[in-house]
């Protein structure tokens, strides 16, 4: 993390835009981060994805707030092919939406050299990304993420997918975008709850392997929530750089990329239990999952108890849930059902679950050594409280 050093440079620079490069050989691309980029997206796409006409996929909320600016910018470059507006929410990441979307895109006559523009949060990014990877056996993709979560995580790295009753993101592809445009101004219209949910993924980068960033967030998180543009740009840049480094090293998740799933094995199981509903947002599930991963690590004597307490305290200070009992509503998940959902995790190899555990803040690692009974007992206690 280089927050202090670059602060002075940022203040002197006329153009606050930052570029993070994702190095993947022929599939390399840039992530442009800064205020006001939506109005420049036509220009950015024209130079990074030459000759691509753009079919925009978005959701109703984002369309009402921001589609006009994007459309105007694409029109100025004569790139706008059409747009389609889907229902907001996790339930849109389904086979039904995918097939409808593919047919709409074919109806717009999207060709191989054209681009699908995923304009929205992680739901639109994952669904439109998936459609772009199978349409005509793969068309180009531009991600324009509009939530904090999508800017720091889901728009980068090429994972696309949909959910099924068996689990989250179990059906999908790896399909890298050709360009990512993260306009930090569009975050102003996000609800507090959605902003907080995205913050869980921000804090995750500190918890995985950057203890300095985690400490900085503990001291400076309020700036992020109160429209401090510099803090937002730097935060998105640091997270994207961290993800770019991991993805460049392990694009297909054979090793270090699994660390990005800290908190996700527990979190995904909770999302399935909550029925992919607004009752529990993805980032909220990840927040509970990260707190549980630290707690389990501390119980197993792998991580200092103080670190687990510090992580939970910070997530709570931000307003995020850290325990299963924090989920709204009277009913509680059944530990066996949660365990069965966890067993569907993509990291399972021959029935053996991999866990992202921690030796402390900034020291996540992958373990396949934890006996099933240990986790089942832990879950049973967590579901009781
Ligand atoms: P989301 O896409 O549902 O967006 C959250 C809500 O915010 C939606 O209601 C949306 O309409 C609204 N919204 C979006 N932008 C807005 C804006 N600028 N102003 C006002 N409202 C806005 O959810 P999300 O949290 O962005 O993404 C969660 C999804 O991302 C999950 O499905 C998760 O599995 C996926 N994900 C994927 C990856 C990956 O690597 N592909 C990584 C992390 C998460
Ligand atoms: N969000 C997990 C990954 O991209 O690998």
How would you sum up this structure, described in words?
It is a single chain. This protein is α/β, with parallel strands linked by helices and 385 residues long. The protein folds into 2 domains: 235 residues, Rossmann fold, CATH 3.40.50.1970; 123 residues, Dehydroquinate synthase-like, alpha domain (Up-down Bundle), CATH 1.20.1090. It contains 14 helices and 11 strands. The chain has a 7-stranded mixed sheet, sandwiched between helices. Strands 7-8 form a two-stranded antiparallel sheet. Helix 5 links the parallel strand 5 and strand 6. The radius of gyration is 20 Å and the shape is globular. The chain starts with a helix and ends with a helix. It binds nicotinamide-adenine-dinucleotide and glycine.
What's the gist of this structure?
By secondary structure, the protein is an alpha/beta fold. The chain is built from 14 helices and 11 strands.
Set down the secondary structure blueprint.
Layout (H helix, E strand, L loop, with lengths): L2 H10 L5 E5 L6 E6 L6 H8 L5 E6 H17 L3 E7 L8 H13 L7 E6 L1 H13 L5 E6 L2 H7 L4 E6 L2 E8 L4 E5 L8 H18 L1 H15 L3 H21 L14 H10 L8 H18 L5 H14 L16 H8 L12 E4 L5 E4 L4 H13 L1
Parallel strand pairs: 2-9, 3-4, 3-5, 5-6, 6-9
Antiparallel strand pairs: 1-2, 7-8, 10-11
Helix pairs in contact: 4-5, 6-7, 6-9, 7-8, 7-11, 10-11, 10-13, 11-12, 13-14
The site of glycine has 6 residues, from loops.
